[in-house]
Each structure stands twice: as structure tokens, then as C-alpha cells.
Amino acid sequence: MIEFLLRHFVKDYRDTHLPQVRQGYGTLSGAVGILLNLLLFAGKFLAGVLTASISVTADAFNNLSDAGSSIVTLVGFRLAGQKADEDHPFGHGRMEYLTGLLISLVILLVGFELAKSSVEKIIHPETIAFSWLSVAILAAAICVKLWMFWFNRSLSRRIGSAAMAATAADSLSDSVATTVVLLATLVDHFLHVNVDGVAGLLVALFILRAGWGAAKDTLDPLLGKAPDPELVDAIQRDILAHPEIIGIHDMIVHDYGPGRAIMSLHAEVPADCDIMAAHDTIDSAEQEIKEKYGILTVIHMDPIAQDEATVEMRAAMAGLVREIDPELSIHDFRMTAGPKRTNLIFDVVAPYRLGLSDSQLRAAIQEKAHALSPTYYTVVEVDHAFTARARE
Predict the structure, then answer these.
(1) I need a labelling partner for 111 at 20 to 30 A (CA). Which of 46, 267, 276, 349 fits?
(2) What pLDDT is stored for residue 73 in this prediction?
(3) 295 and 317 co-located in one domain
(4) Closest Cα partner for 341 from 371, 385, 376?
(5) Is 7 helix (H, G, I), strand (E, B) or coil?
(6) How many CB atoms lie within 10 A of CB 281?
(7) Are residues 140 and 251 in the same domain?
(8) Residue 298 has what pLDDT?
């Protein structure tokens, strides 16, 4: 069914890296959501009127809010698909994240209002009228929402969309919520126990939990989360495959929306190499990363001394800093020797979880260097890893 819809409504649907294809996915998801949620609202509202059930009526308005969320999804993807302009040189891709955040806020609002109404029903319970038509409507609604969960989750995985993942989570919470409402209706009819208010409260709590999870998933990329470790490893392997590049550090990935990432990093090359040849290698590496991963890349060239004394001292200091913490690494290592002291100048990359302040870390490194020789003095710049874990 999904393949059928994609094939007929999204042009070039397999080329998910293209912004216009992502926009097509978003339009399809939004249109399907609007249609099905409006139908579900009409059916559940009818069931709520027939039974005078607060949980059924609340569930109906939950679907109405979902229809509004689908409209937000549709509009958000169309805005995200706009091309870059003078005011937004990196495009409008983050509109997709904002769309997901708005959907999650709507979910939280619906959950809060439903919880408030359910508490009132618990305090002041009312008789519920039973209707087999209402039971049939609720059962059909569960099946529809489960299909919508599967549909939106499949689309979100194909294009890596947080907004669609939030919509899928909402559909799953709706199916569970409607199941609880259906069970409450059957319990009231067959066991003569009014659990309408309790059922509504359980539904509200489930909706609130789903809304919070969806909000977190969309807030993380907006705030700037670390890139995927597997992506970092793959990029690192590709760049170091060039024999002229002997190391990389300070990799930073800026996410401007799905398929709109910019990356910068430092590439270490031997100080005595042919600078024109090294520059050509770095240009080639930048182009390869852009073509393979769709990431606009800027690489800064760092010349590294490769004489025997510097190489040995760098290895020694790298080992000493790892004694402080195994995840510490160093780069940009230089030595300047004087008549009475030798300065060891380098940057150390520290994970954010390290239990030492920058000044404490510098003092610990200095102590290690002095233990090696009283003439060694360290000049250390502390960096913090922008990627998932520090690398030398």
C-alpha cells in the first residue's frame, strides 16, 4: 500500500536525498493524515454523542487535533523545501524540526486537557449509554490508527524525518488511547463498573508521554546534537584513506535540516610535504565527502613536524594524557627548545563528561610532563569534543 501511494503521488520517490522528494513525502503524509483524522473525528464524535462518554468524545477531539497537526506537517514540509535565499543562505530545512516540535506541543496540550476533563469525570461520574455502533466505530478507529502509525513510521525511516516520527508516535498513542476507551465502554456495559473517567486519565497520561518523547526528538537537532558516531567514523576513514593526510581533529557538523549539513575539520599533513600537492588532496577530500554524504565540507590544513624527536615526544605525551583519562587525545603538537626549558605546545580534546575543569586538566598534564623531565613545560589548549567521542 505504501509503495502504491509513493509510486503514484511522489515523483522519483526513491531519491530521498532530494529536497523536492522529501517535500513530496511530507505532502503525502499530511494529506493522508488530514483525510483519515477528519473521518475518525466524525465517527468518534457520533459515538460520543450516542453514549454520552467523556472518554469517547475526548478521543474524537484528539483526532481533530491530529488533523490540525497533519496540516502543520504539510505546511512545514513545503516551507522546508524552499530553496536557499539571501536571508537564509543554508535553506529552510530546520522548518521540518520546528514542525515536529509544534506537533508535539499540540499532543501535550491535548493530553493536558483530556487529563483535566477525566479528573472531573472521576469526581462526578455520569451514566454511559451503550451502543454496538459506537463499539464498531472505536474498533475500526484502532485499526486505522495502527495503519497510520505503520505508514508514518515507514515514511520517517525512508527519509530520516523527526516530524514524521513524531506523527507516527502520535498515531500509536491514539490507537492505545482508543483501545482503553473501548475497554472502558465494554467494562461499563458488561460489568456495570463506571471507569470512564479513569480510562480517560490513562489515555491522557499515555498521550502526554508520547508528546514529551516527540518533543525531545525534535528539540535535540534544533539545539545542536552531536553527529551520528557511525557517520563520523565513516568520514574519518574516507579522509584518512588519503596517504598525504596523517590525522584529523576538530570535526564540527552543523545541521541545517535533513540533507542540509555543513562540516569543518582540520587535516594534519607533514610539514615538509609539497604544499600544492597537499592542497590538491584536501580539495579532493572535500569534494568526495560532499558527493558521498551530501555534506558541504571545509577542511583546514595543519602542517605537523615529523622529525624523530617531535614524533617520539608527541607519542609520549599522548600516552601520559590517556593515563588521566582513556578518552583524552592530543593534536597540533609542537616543541620549542630553549637553554633551560622545553615548551610542549599542543591541544587536548576532552569529553564533556570529564570530571576535571580545564585548569585542573592543565595542572594534571603539567605534573605528568614534569615527572618525565623537570625541564618540560606544557602550553595546553583544552578543546571539547564536538563529535560523539574524542579522537586523536
Answers:
(1) 46
(2) 66
(3) no
(4) 376
(5) helix
(6) 21
(7) no
(8) 94
Domain finish residue from 252, 281, 304 = 304
Separation between Cα atoms, residue 246 and residue 229, nearest integer Å:
21
Tell which wins on pLDDT, 189 or 126.
189
Answer for the pair 310, 366: CB distance below 8 angstroms, yes or no. Answer: no
- Over residues 154-182, the mean pLDDT reads 83
- Helices and strands in the chain, H and E counts: 11, 6
- The pLDDT tens digits of the residues spanning 291-310 come to 888 888 999 998 888 888 88
The lowest-confidence range among 137-151, 211-225, 292-306, 364-378 is 211-225
Cell numbers placing 291: 558527493
Q: Is the pLDDT of residue 70 over 80?
A: no
Residues 75, 167: one domain? yes
Rounded mean pLDDT, 110-134 = 80
Q: Decide: helix, strand or coil at residue 30.
A: helix
| Structural domain harbouring 251 | 226-304
Is residue 175 within 8 A of residue 169, CB to CB? The reply is no
**Distances, alpha carbon 299 to alpha carbons 105, 295, 330, in Å:** 39, 12, 18
- Beta-carbon count within 10 A of 311 CB: 13
Task: State the chain's mean pLDDT as an integer.
Answer: 84
- The verdict on 217 and 313 lying in the same domain is no
The CA-based angle 381-385-386, given to 5 degrees, is 125
How many residues belong to the chain?
Answer: 392
Q: The CATH number of the domain where 335 resides is what?
A: 3.30.70.1350
User: Residue 169 pLDDT more than 70?
Assistant: yes
CA distance 53 to 7: 42
C-alpha cell at 225: 546534537
Which of 304, 338, 369 is the last residue in one of the domains?
Answer: 304
36 shares its domain with 128 = yes
